Amino acid sequence: MSPAPVVRAGRTRSAATLLVLTVLLLVSVTAGLAIGSVRVPPGQVWGIVTHALGAGWQEPDWSRARETIVLDVRAPRVLLGAVTGAGLAVIGTALQALVRNPLAEPYLLGVSSGASLGAVSVIVFGVTLFGPVSLSVAAFVGALGALLLVYATARTGGRITSSRLVLSGVAVAAVLTAVLDLLLLTTDRGNEARAVLAWTLGGLGGVAWGMLWLPGLALLFGIGVLTAQARNLNLLLAGEEAATTMGLDVARFRARLFVVVSLVTGVLVAAAGPIGFVGLMMPHIVRLFVGGDHRRVLPTAALGGAVFLVWADIAARTVAAPTEIPVGVLTALCGGPFFLWLMRRDARRGTDRGVA
Predict the structure, then answer these.
(1) C-alpha count within 13 angstroms, C-beta hemisphere, residue 74
(2) Nearest CA-CA partner of 43 in 68, 25, 62
(3) Taking Cα atoms as reference points, which of 131, 155, 100 lies closest to residue 292?
(4) Neighbours of 42 (CB within 10 A)
(5) Residue 342: which of 104, 113, 167 has the closest Cα?
(6) Residue of 143, 151, 103, 82 whose CA lies nearest to 269
(7) Whose CA is closest to 184, among 169, 200, 173?
(8) Peptide bond into 299 cis (omega under 30)
(9) For a designed S-S bond to 139, which of 56, 71, 245, 270 qualifies (C-beta 3.0 to 4.6 A apart)?
(10) How many domains does the chain have?
């Protein structure tokens, strides 16, 4: 078969996948707004939303309480879930290309732990140097520091293996988590310590509209930069030598994207806490449908991550109601077995090879 039909078939499959995921995201958002301790019919959900946007044609037939539940309680939470899921999936996709490792993702590499430590330090010590964005700035610094430390530790003799990268990530995450726990145990702010401890499990509760603008901007920035660099990410998959031959300054490119990855991860962790395994699972799942080209993988992974985390949050709110399960616990229950399967698959294929 000639290349042209193959390319057209790939584009058609990618477009179809994006369309399906877009529809699924709309359905997921509707479910997130409708499902809870107070059930709201889907038609009424969209009536409330369109009426709030000034586009509703029907007279309100719902109570003020239901309108408050949909618009002020559930809508910010659902949107944060979609933004966080999309951002983590995109960052996981980029990390797997940057370090050429299928097991790379913010949680496993200790990036989320670094961001958590930075954010918790701001809360415990009451640092407000950067005003309302102090939490996100500290999380960014922690994420970048953790990522650089893991990369430097895993890279010996100019090469990195999958096992060494994961072990370095686990070790760094363990140390950072221990420091975080020490801060919480020694702080005099008992109420804040309990709230922070719950936050470290990952959760979307308590979010307000005023908290959404920064994660939204971080997601748009991350997707924009990474999509613009999709060709260079594709080059990295062929190896550093091949990428250099094609004119890519690998060291400078990797350093710039490490900053971007850390920035987006830090903002998302500051908003929702450390939520693991979304960035591990989504890239692998979407590649089954759209192939390995990052121009297709990045937007598809973003939609897939958004859908997944919205439904994970719905489950967190309803499975053990009235008790709410931290959404990070549910993503770990899904991602842990996926991680073990991925390791076994790569071991069978002999993919624990060095990465220059």
Answers:
(1) 26
(2) 62
(3) 100
(4) 13
(5) 104
(6) 143
(7) 200
(8) no
(9) 270
(10) 1
> Is the sign of the CA dihedral 311, 314, 318, 324 positive or negative?
positive
User: 283 is written with which tokens?
Assistant: 């890239």
Answer yes or no: is 41 within a domain.
Answer: no
Half-sphere exposure of 68 (CA within 13 A, CB side): 3
CATH of the domain at 255: 1.10.3470.10
d(CA 333, CA 62): 37
Cα–Cα dist 125/316, whole Å:
31
Q: Is 135 within the bounds of a domain?
A: yes
What range defines the domain where residue 223 resides?
A: 80-348
> How many Å apart are CA 92 and CA 104, to the nearest integer?
7
Token look-up 């020694």 returns 186
- Local structure of 159: helix, strand or coil: strand
Residue 17 lies in a domain: no
Q: Per-10-residue mean pLDDT for the chain, 356 residues long?
A: 62 91 97 93 91 76 90 95 97 92 88 92 82 89 93 78 81 92 78 72 86 95 96 90 89 91 94 92 94 94 97 93 89 91 75 48
Residue whose entry in the numeric block shows the structure tokens 């939520």: 275
Residue pointed to by tokens 């192939």: 291
User: Would you list the DSSP string of 188-220?
Assistant: S-HHHHHHHHHHTT---TT--GGGSHHHHHHHH
